[in-house]
Amino acid sequence: MATKLDNDQRARAERPSHVPIDRVYEIDMYALEGIEAGYHEAWKQVAPAGTPDLVWTPFTGGHWIAMNGETVKDVYSDPGRFSSEVIFLPKEAGELYQLVPTRMDPPEHTPYRKSLDKGLSLAKIRKVEDQVRQVAGDLIDKFADRGECDFAAEYAGTFPVHVFMALADLPLEDVPLLSKFARQMTRPEGNSPEEMAADLQAGNDGFFGYVDPIIRARTGGSGEDLITTMVNTEINGAPIEHQKAQGLISLLLLGGLDTVVNFLSFFMIHLARHPELVEELRTDPIKLKRAAEEMFRRFPVVSEARMVARDQEYRGVTLKRGDMILLPTVLHGLDETINAEPWKLDLERRKIDHSTFGGGPHRCAGMHLARMEVIVTLEEWLKRIPRFRLKDDAAPTYFSGIVAAVENVPLTWAPAKSA
């Protein structure tokens, strides 16, 4: 089902000769038709049952899109055919992206990934759980007695950021600047690939300029913060190169300041509309802990890409080296052929299949921290605010891109003092 974007001023690419005309669908990843009803709903609307595994869109420089869970998972897991050399769209922007090691393929990628895994291991994350819990509780306490809040602005946009800035030993006053850089990289603005590339480049350069003096100051240091750990790592037996360290630390900042921030608001909107789920979580601590994975399946927010590594036949079409394939993780988690009743947030679901954390060698290194942040949020929130709902006039605003976002999430509840 091709979406028709009337009066759109965004540039459209010419269809390459190897792209069949019946595979052309007008889908704009940065301006999804129907997004007013929800980000996940919009993606499923443009990918109904019967849509080919791969379609091609003229938007965002022209690229393929994987349209179901099996294809998303397959492309993620095969770096030999689908390279991480470019992972952001439009390609003109992705070629300027310099964060490490996301643009590397094995074996170059491997030692950098080992360093990330060491710094963000489950054992290390568990050591900071009390600190994470304190941040969550303090934030909720600021508005719990008020009986209302804008969850996106007052909690989701603050909690993961405060946690990450504490882990990295960075000042909170730098958050607005870093959040601007993150927006430029994940939802670059512009009416053409060139304009979007310039916005992404500004974000990339902003991160590099910010971390440069911090890396120099902490190289050779003995601190236990995440940045000191990363910049003093060795790659193939030698100190990490300065530019590579800039890319590595910038990647950590991008992940810590944008992805979980947006995920939290999506699932909280759903819970606010389904009090029976809240009651299940509130009365069963074991179920609450298990619920995190089902929430990641149900509310994925990432749509990154892979570059075709060589000419090949794949899923009934010819792919040329350099072609780009977008991987909307929403189309895996909500694929009804993979997850039964995918729209249902099923706290009893046992077989959970998704690509919310990516896949293959680039599976998200921060997934342990993300899971902890979700569980801690639910536990600390429900201690203080056991029942809540969306305000009657709530109208959340959704944004699509490399990382989806939602703003305006007004929640209300009876304060404990008056309950």
Describe the structure in your own words:
The structure is a single chain. This protein has 419 residues and is an alpha+beta fold. 45% of the residues lie in helices and 11% in strands. Strands 1-2-10-7-3 form a 5-stranded mixed beta sheet. Strands 4-14-11 form a 3-stranded antiparallel beta sheet. Strand 12 and strand 13 form a beta hairpin. The protein starts with 38 loop residues before the first helix and ends in a 7-residue tail after the last strand. The relative contact order is 0.17. The N terminus is likely disordered.
Question: Secondary-structure blueprint of this entry?
Answer:
Elements: H1 39-46, E1 54-57, E2 63-66, H2 69-76, E3 82-83, H3 91-94, H4 109-119, H5 122-127, H6 129-141, E4 148-150, H7 151-156, H8 159-168, H9 175-186, H10 193-218, H11 226-231, E5 234-235, E6 238-239, H12 242-273, H13 275-283, H14 285-298, E7 303-308, E8 312-314, E9 317-319, E10 324-328, H15 330-333, H16 367-384, E11 389-390, E12 397-399, E13 405-407, E14 410-412
Parallel strand pairs: 2-10
Antiparallel strand pairs: 1-2, 3-7, 4-14, 5-6, 7-10, 8-9, 11-14, 12-13
Helix pairs in contact: 6-16, 8-12, 9-10, 9-12, 10-12, 13-14, 14-16
List descriptors:
single chain; 419 residues; alpha+beta; Cytochrome p450; three-stranded antiparallel beta sheet; 16 helices; 14 strands
What would you call the shape?
globular
Estimate percent helicity: 40-55%
Percentage of β-strand residues: 5-15%
- CATH superfamily, by name, is Cytochrome P450
Our Rg estimate from Cα atoms comes to: 21 Å
Query: Count of helices?
Result: 16
Please state the second-level CATH architecture. Answer: Orthogonal Bundle
Return residue spans where pLDDT drops below 50 for at least 5 consecutive residues. Answer: 1-7
CATH class assignment: Mainly Alpha
